[in-house]
Design goal:
The complex is a heterodimer of chains A (116) and B (110).
Chain A: E1 3-6, E2 10-12, E3 18-25, E4 34-39, E5 45-51, E6 58-60, E7 68-73, E8 78-83, E9 92-97, E10 110-114
Parallel strand pairs in A: 2-10
Antiparallel strand pairs in A: 1-3, 3-8, 4-5, 4-9, 5-6, 7-8, 9-10
Chain B: E1 9-12, E2 18-23, E3 35-40, E4 47-50, E5 64-69, E6 72-77, E7 86-93, E8 99-101, E9 105-109
Parallel strand pairs in B: 1-9
Antiparallel strand pairs in B: 2-6, 3-4, 3-7, 5-6, 7-8, 7-9
The chains are: A mainly beta (116), B mainly beta (110).
């Protein structure tokens, strides 16, 4: 069965960077794009960006341009999302997800806490 | 890119039907048939309930249905049950090759 397994929770200081991984299994990794979505405590889902798992092309929400990097390692069927210059407002659960029609699978979420 | 507009909350009694609206623009909902609806229980990842406006994934109850008219999509839940109480989010593909989510709607089953 399809699974997206994310790395564990992180606590970071303001100004630092965080890198979250998302290992896919149960399907051909390069067939579907991988999206990253975050949800601050008590807030709505916010789409951040996506990567074409086949060719590595990326697209980001403008508010994250320059701060977010999404990469993938096809040999490991793993996608990565790195967010830099962290601030308290970046405290959230970060999800990877496939979001393609019925092929819609989500990771379990990674809690990132930004606190001094 | 602004979030799609959803009512903050809706409520209904068991057995009743409710509809949640999701309003966007011609650059997202109005321009594409790529509207999805998600159900999210506290502390859980979102679960897909409707994709491509009106399609139900395997395993989702036929009490859930979706539709779209112009720039507004809707999710209808019929025969409301206690376990339907959750947050619901719409999403759409956009003309910028991005995805946008709605603000979320809290459904309360009275």
């Amino acid at each position: 069965q399809v699974q997206l397994v994310q790395s564990g929770a992180e606590v970071k200081k303001p100004g630092a960077s965080v890198k979250v991984s998302c290992k896919a299994s149960g399907y051909t990794f390069t067939t579907y794009a991988m999206h990253w979505v975050r949800q601050a405590p008590g807030q709505r889902l916010e789409w951040m960006g996506w990567i074409n798992a086949d060719n590595g092309n990326t697209r980001f929400l403008q508010k994250f341009q320059g701060r977010v990097t999404i990469t993938r390692d096809t040999s490991a069927s793993t996608a990565y999302m790195e967010l830099s210059s962290l601030r308290s407002e970046d405290t959230a659960v970060y999800y990877c997800a496939t979001l393609r029609g019925f092929f819609n699978y989500w990771g379990q979420g990674t809690l990132v806490i930004v606190s001094s | 890119q602004s979030a799609l507009t959803q009512p903050a909350s809706v409520s209904g009694s068991p057995g009743q039907s409710i509809t949640i609206s999701c309003t966007g623009t011609s650059s997202d909902i109005g321009g594409y048939n790529y509207v999805s609806w998600y159900q999210q229980h506290p502390g859980k990842a979102p679960k897909l309930m409707i994709y491509d406006v009106s399609n139900r994934p395997s395993g989702v109850s036929n009490r859930f249905s979706g539709s779209k008219s112009g720039n507004t999509a809707s999710l209808t839940i019929s025969g409301l049950q206690a376990e339907d109480e959750a947050d619901y989010y719409c999403s759409s593909y956009t003309s910028s090759s991005t995805v946008v989510f709605g603000g979320g709607t809290k459904l309360t089953v009275l």
